[in-house]
């Protein structure tokens, strides 16, 4: 950290943490340091502690400090993608014979990393229903090193109790990892609820503009931070300087974007709930959502992701996805523009026939920050 004390408000941190004006030029925005190496004043005489850009790069450092400040952690690390962050984490804290407990509806890429990659190196995993703490306790073994949680989940928007899971994990001597991609640190800060590690796909809300792929880890414990930093350098899946710069720029507006995502999603949920073509709306902000109370306790807003089911089944869901104009038919989420997708055939197609299979009448919306009236008019046209 630099000498400036860390400001306390979230959006103040988003704009200033790690981002002091450049001491050499006064540039208000952290410079994009496109350099691989750094001149040494005599052998080993590093000017700013920088030696080689896989190990450290000042633009990435600025992002890492901002991430740590936003998640209220000790150490932030930025990676080439969300999955690169996850891989580095698993290979730091697990070894052959280690066991991971994860949500039955975890992000498909996380499940694939565990079942197709980590499994080959002897890391075992058990998918469970994370909303049932008894089931989680029953799944834990002596060798469980990680309890891997996502909340809200994708695309069913289930909610897990972070504080409750932290207790179960710690009683078992395991780490609680929370993938905080859907909520973003503006709405939920898992480390303050007892989690040990926060994972992000910065590709989504943190970047926020659908123009950069990246990932992050933030941890509360400095020693674990050092082990992860060692592996970040040793494995090399780092965030490039330009990607780090883009995520840092996105983060500055995270608070205002999330407020608008929340407000627009609430309008969309109201509209969908009033329509006979829609058989169910899945959104943690709804009082009848099974995770509503927990979500209201651990989140400061319910986010921009909305899923719903169509009474007309798969055919109606596919027709809907092809009829929206403003909601663009595409995978991914968390950008300023609204997106629509059919999880059963798109993001979750690989889960067909497995316990992770999602209903075919389900549509997922990533509600953007356009004008709510225009979004609702688009949904109305596509339903009609
Ligand atoms: C997209 C996503 C990931 C993976 O991140 P990439 O940046 O695509 O590697 C992990 N978790 C969640 C919840 C995601 O949405």
Description of the molecule:
The chain is of the alpha/beta class. It folds into two domains: 10-252, 3-Layer(aba) Sandwich (Aspartate Aminotransferase, domain 2); 255-383, Aspartate Aminotransferase, domain 1 (Alpha-Beta Complex), CATH 3.90.1150.10. Helices cover 36% and strands 15% of the residues. The protein contains 13 helices and twelve strands. It has helices at 10-16, 58-71, 82-93, 108-117, 133-139, 162-171, 184-187, 222-235, 241-252, 254-273, 292-298, 313-323, 372-383; strands spanning 75-79, 99-103, 124-128, 144-150, 175-179, 197-201, 215-219, 278-282, 305-310, 328-329, 339-341, 362-366. A seven-stranded mixed sheet has the order 1-7-6-5-4-2-3, with helices on both faces. Strands 8-9-12-11-10 form a five-stranded mixed sheet. Helix 7 (184-187) links the parallel strand 5 (175-179) and strand 6 (197-201). The protein is globular. The protein starts with 9 loop residues before the first helix and ends with a helix. The mean pLDDT is 95. Bound molecules: pyridoxal-5'-phosphate. Residues 81-83, 107, 109, 150, 154, 179, 181-182, 201, 203-204, 213, 215 line the site of pyridoxal-5'-phosphate.
